[in-house]
Amino acid sequence: MTQTHWSGWFRLVQREERTMKLEWTFTAESYLDQLSPEERAKVLHAVGRLPMAWDRLGETRLQRLEGDQNDLYSLRVGADLRVLVRRQEDVVTVIDVVRYSQLDGLRRLAAVKQAAG
């Protein structure tokens, strides 16, 4: 599946009425293109529901990331994928799609920096 296919699907989803606008960064789109078709479908499904279900997701699937930016969240998609999103008023921006192991490594790096500084 190429970027054009999922981009076309995404445009169809965007036409539905939303309470929030959904945007994708180039980084997130690039990583999405590298996923298997099954993983890509899971991410698109989860992100497509995000503007309508933000307040209902709670802390089980959507967690605020600690740090300097308090508007950055991690959306759990399956066991290994996390979608990093930023919410600013009525705009949700998909920042990146990462494997959980990558995110865990970033957390450890931040903890080391904090302990050293």
TrEMBL record:
Top-level taxon of the source organism: Bacteria
InterPro entries: RelE/ParE_toxin_dom_sf (IPR035093)
SUPFAM superfamilies: RelE-like
Protein name per its UniProtKB record: Type II toxin-antitoxin system RelE/ParE family toxin
